[in-house]
Amino acid sequence: MRIGNCSGFYGDRLSAMREMLEDGPLDVLTGDYLAELTMLILGRDRMRDPSLGYAKTFVRQAEECLGRALEKGVRLVANAGGLNPAGLASRIREVATGLGLSASVAHVEGDDLMPRASSLGLGDALTANAYLGGFGIAAALSGGADVVVTGRVTDASLVVGPCVWRFGWGRSSYDELAGAVVAGHVIECGTQATGGNFSGFLSMERDARSLGFPLVEMSADGSSVVTKHDGTGGLVSVDTVTAQLMYEVQSTTYLNPDVSVDLTSIQLSDLAPDRVGVSGVRGAAPPADLKVCVNELGGFRNQLELVLTGLDVEEKASWVRAQLESRLDPRPAVVEWTLSGRPIADAASEEEASCLLRCTVKDPSADAVGRAFSSAGVELALASYPGFALTAPPAKESPYGVYRPAYVARDEVAEVAVFDDGRREVVA
To answer: 247 with 192: CB under 8 angstroms?
Structure first.
């Protein structure tokens, strides 16, 4: 089974879904749109409009590509549902109807713990989502879905689910599940597996072509081959795959909702140009608890960025810092100063002779970091160090979020596959 990826984050290359469908054969095309920050962004969207809370770019991609995917028999599986997978599924059905297409759209829910956040000890959260595994996706595909959208599943679950569906793995197929988690982890970040953010980039062809998105050829025993469509830019090698495998990994055991993966068991081999074999992966029982992504509103923040040019940079910074801080009333809870770099001696240009001094303020109250702060800075324009300059006009305060992980017992989370006809299946 050939499983491709067309998104590593919310904001990734919009044309990637079309490219992956056009440039070579696939059975399943996945997209990863969620990160901790993304959940916060979607939470703010949902506060403004309860019908939102999903990755809107997936809708734009579906408008362009759904017909092509159906024609080629490619299943689409994406976590673009974010905080509102039911809303996204409904929107994709509208897209299909508008295009005159017949598509079965399912979604997976159960990750959103906000209605029970207080009772679960998760505090006053803006978002609270448990990381689900791949069995809900498998149930949706088994029910005939052409498109499956989810909320907060782990990134690798987008590959695990289709493998469970196709190969019939059970909950205790630990080695096979572990192999799928590794394959999913390799392709989850899109072009990071094909040369993006790769420290060995000097060994690659570096031309104007966009890097090709990765795909995996999965086998029933959990082994895989990492590759990309022929003729696309970038590189798939043991080094690029290894670099992605080490991304966001903090120990020799990689914990996922469906399996615990022994990372020391992975065997990589160069099979041919742009083809890397992954085999030998061993797995064990998954952890007892599920991880939860919790986002809270942290308060409000603002900043000023000043340009310091020429001589006596330290003295200029010290003076304006003392001036500004004495004028902060009320004083924000957090006042941070950062001086970046130092001017080059005998600089040939003003830019080389300059550095930046940034003042960042945070406070639970918007008043403390709004006009009271920005006005205090602007008032120094003709009354401070020589060459006083700001890199941008004063801005209003903005809210900021704070992410923290939490954990809940598995039996507190009910994973549900919701089919196109409204039928609901609780995933055991």
So the answer is: yes
Rounded Cα gap, residues 278 and 268, in angstroms: 5
- In 3D, which of 35, 34, 17, 30 has the Cα closest to residue 162? 30
According to DSSP, the residues that pair with 255 across neighbouring strands are 260
pLDDT of residue 217: 98
**Three-point CA angle 317, 323, 329, nearest 5°:** 130
pLDDT at 341 over 90: no
Q: Which residues contact 126 (CB under 8 A, 6 or more apart)?
A: 40, 43, 47, 295, 296, 297, 401
Give the residue among 244, 285, 225, 212 at the shortest CA–CA distance from 13: 212
* pLDDT tens digits, one per residue of 352-381: 999 999 999 999 999 999 999 999 999 999
In sequence order, the β-bridge partners of residue 148 are: 77, 106
pLDDT at 381: 96
Environment class of residue 310 by beta-carbon count within 10 Å: exposed (0-12), middle (13-18) or buried (19+)?
Answer: middle
The sheet that has 253-255: what strands, in order across it? 253-255, 260-262, 282-284
Structure tokens at 14: 């919009």
Q: Predicted confidence band at 152 (pLDDT cuts at 50, 70, 90)?
A: very high
Question: What pLDDT, on the 0 to 100 scale, is given for residue 403?
Answer: 93
What separation in angstroms does the CA of 377 have from each of 302, 364, 392?
12, 20, 12
Token match 């509103």: residue?
297
